[in-house]
Write a structure and sequence with these properties.
This protein is mainly alpha-helical. About 75% of the residues lie in helices and about 0% in strands. The protein contains six helices and no strands. The protein is extended and about 70 Å long.
Length: about 160
């Protein structure tokens, strides 16, 4: 099965798109880790060692992460940012970097998240916004989740 068949919503020909470039790299990583796993499997059948078992487990995790990233990008147009090649794209990494570069901007954005949480909690109580209840709930959940990432960054930085 070709990558175009496996992930039909990805425009594989648009190599000017950085996300498509990353999807191509992830697809290649998935193939390369599978090949290494196949070689290790043969080695494990003949002469299993602790390091070979560990390598197999690490390759399997990396292979599954690549698969999950590609599936997510195909389905939603967004990466999960859990694969090592994408870890610097994650919101956590970006906020950690922001905290180290510009602490006041980090705190400003954190305050904005807290304010948004208050605002959407208030919206959910208002009768005049009954028609927007589901979108208000989604926005509240999004801001709560983002604020959790801010707290995780602060906890990580305090260690």
């Amino acid at each position: 099965m070709s990558k175009e068949e496996e992930y039909p919503r990805i425009d594989w020909d648009d190599l000017s798109d950085p996300d498509v470039q990353m999807a191509t790299v992830l697809y290649n990583d998935r193939i390369n880790t599978w090949r290494k796993m196949k070689q290790l499997d043969e080695q494990l059948d003949k002469h299993p060692t602790e390091s070979a078992v560990k390598s197999m487990a690490e390759l399997r995790v990396r292979n599954l992460q690549a698969f999950d990233e590609l599936q997510s990008y195909n389905d939603t147009g967004k990466f999960l940012c859990q694969h090592p090649l994408l870890s610097d794209r994650s919101e956590f990494s970006q906020l950690l970097d922001l905290l180290s570069r510009d602490p006041s901007e980090f705190l400003r954005q954190h305050r904005n998240e807290l304010d948004s949480i208050k605002r959407y909690r208030s919206y959910l109580k208002r009768e005049d916004r009954a028609a927007r209840r589901s979108s208000d709930r989604e926005n509240l959940d999004r801001h709560i989740n983002r604020e959790k990432v801010f707290r995780m960054v602060l906890e990580q930085n305090n260690k």
